[in-house]
Write a structure and sequence with these properties.
Udp-n-acetylmuramoylalanyl-d-glutamate--2,6- Diaminopimelate Ligase, Chain: A, domain 1; UDP-N-acetylmuramoyl-L-alanine:D-glutamate ligase; Protein-Tyrosine Phosphatase, Chain A; 3 domains; six-stranded mixed beta sheet
Length: 505
């Protein structure tokens, strides 16, 4: 338990304090920005685009003794007025949870694509190592799910808000976890969700145009600069030399105490991958590090995953993980909803479920499918989220219009924006490059229609949602079947109608 003056001093030291009439000796035993989670002695934080004064009044009724805000609401409990409530929230979270992330090894991964796959490559490797040491499994905070030793659930944000993030750190520390791997979004870096956190290893995968809008990153430079912040917050930096603007990235990365590079093109990289080839559905390559040179087999499809694997290997080299666990971990690694392949009984239709959702990941996915499924008709089912990442509508429309035989536009976390409006905007960009499309609002029906329209000798790409079990409609998340469930059901129905026997896999 701390007194209110500790937080006031924290704000003063960081130049965001404006004024307060509060009794600085007031005892604070809890902090919250959720009016449903308030107890006696709570310091309440007023934040968010949807914040309403009624939330603050509710917090007061439930026992809040003061609030932190950029606006004085003049209610019964005193205000600590600050100039930057986002920064205040980060400072409060770090202070309240006593930098508990220092009790385990924390690995942060940023990049336009590949964050989730790399996260799970690492988790598989570290879990094997930890099992051999009779330790608890590796924690993870990703856009797929979150596990912190106590809580285990499907995620809705790539990087949680500061108090949620540090709660997970606290759970991990109290559970005795030795490692935690997390995705670090550009938004988290720009708006300080990870402010005050120092990563043992900070990884940079790549950069592509995404999240450019008035409410996210106003320019590509802002997006790039935001990602570069990870190097000011890590003890070891890991950099992909094959990424766009790698020379500029290295200027930032060289400021880290230790630096590891990886590449499939530059033999001078610390971790170098070469002799990359396919063997059946597996991807095989040789990796050379300062400690070993070994052949690696990936059973997760997609040639582009070699870069993600090299990043994971680089992290493990920095942490001193023995090579036997790296080799075995990558062989068994899977990432839920990432390049998951399902086929009908005679394998004439292939459905690939993937989270690809931006220009870089879309183009990489199409090019990989062209190489791995030559001669097949390729179609895609996708949408775009409501009221954010507006540039995706142009980018994804142009890419699918260029590469896909047909694009099926549908719901994808439309939120407070009409599904049809989003799809029609994407469609204008498909048309601009001479592509074809159909708009089907219901996601399950869109997937079914794509499979039945295209029939045999086809590949159906189903992107954006993976194994997620909810759709954002309005401000709520509504339960729904996963893309995998939709695809498997439609493939089975196709076989039954057409008299094709066997197992759908």
């Amino acid at each position: 338990m701390e007194q209110l003056k500790c937080y006031i001093e924290l704000f003063k030291d960081n130049g965001i304090f404006i004024k307060t009439a509060a009794d600085e000796n007031t005892e604070i035993n809890f902090i919250s920005y959720d009016s449903n989670k308030v107890e006696n002695g709570t310091l309440f934080l007023c934040k968010g685009a949807h914040f309403k004064e009624e939330y603050l009044k509710s917090a007061e009724e439930k026992g809040a003794v003061a609030y932190v805000s950029e606006k004085d609401y003049n209610i019964g409990i005193p205000c600590i007025l600050v100039s930057d409530v986002r920064k205040a929230m980060c400072l409060m979270a770090v202070f309240y949870y006593k930098k508990c992330y220092e009790k385990f090894k924390l690995i942060g991964i940023t990049g336009t694509k590949g964050k989730s796959t790399t996260t799970y490559f690492l988790k598989y490797i570290l879990d094997l190592y930890l099992e051999s040491q009779k330790e608890k499994m590796c924690g993870v905070i990703s856009s797929i799910d979150t596990f912190d030793g106590i809580e285990n659930f499907e995620s809705h944000l790539t990087t949680p808000e500061p108090f949620d993030l540090h709660r997970h750190f606290d759970n991990a520390a109290r559970s005795g976890l030795k490692y935690m791997v997390m995705e670090v979004s550009s938004q988290a870096l720009k708006y300080g969700r990870v402010y005050g956190v120092n990563f043992d290893v900070g990884c940079y995968l790549n950069i592509g145009i995404d999240h450019i809008s008035d409410v996210e990153h106003p320019t590509f430079e802002d997006y790039f600069e935001s990602k570069m912040k990870i190097f000011s917050q890590c003890k070891t930096g890991v950099v992909n030399l094959d990424s766009d603007r790698a020379d500029e990235v290295m200027k930032y990365a060289r400021n880290t105490p230790k630096l590891i590079t990886f590449s499939t093109k530059n033999e001078n990289a610390d971790v170098y991958g070469y002799n990359i080839h396919k063997s059946g559905s597996d991807t095989i390559f040789t990796v050379r590090t300062k400690n070993f040179e070994r052949e690696i087999t990936l059973t997760i499809p997609g040639l582009f995953n070699v870069e993600n694997a090299l990043c994971a290997i680089s992290v493990c080299v920095s942490l001193g993980i023995p090579e036997e666990f790296i080799v075995k971990g990558l062989y068994i690694a899977k990432s839920s909803g990432r390049m998951e392949i399902y086929e009908n009984s005679d394998k004439s239709i292939t459905a690939i479920v993937d989270y690809a959702h931006n220009r870089l990941s879309f183009e990489t996915l199409f090019k990989s499918v062209e190489k791995e499924y030559p001669g097949r008709k390729v179609v895609i089912v996708y949408g775009c989220p409501g009221k954010k990442a507006f540039i995706r509508r142009k980018d994804l429309g142009e890419i699918s219009g260029k590469y896909a035989y047909m694009s099926y536009l549908t719901e994808e976390d439309a939120g407070e924006e009409p599904i049809r409006q989003i799809s029609e905007e994407i469609a204008t960009h498909i048309e601009s490059v001479g592509g074809k499309y159909k708009i089907i609002d219901d996601r399950g029906e869109a997937i079914r229609t794509a499979i039945f329209d295209c029939g045999q000798n086809s590949v159906i790409l189903i992107t954006g949602k993976g194994n997620e079990t909810r759709q954002k409609r309005g401000t709520e998340y509504i339960d729904c079947p996963t893309d995998v469930e939709y695809a498997v059901s439609a493939l089975k129905e196709f076989d039954e109608i057409n008299g094709i026997t066997g197992d759908t896999k």
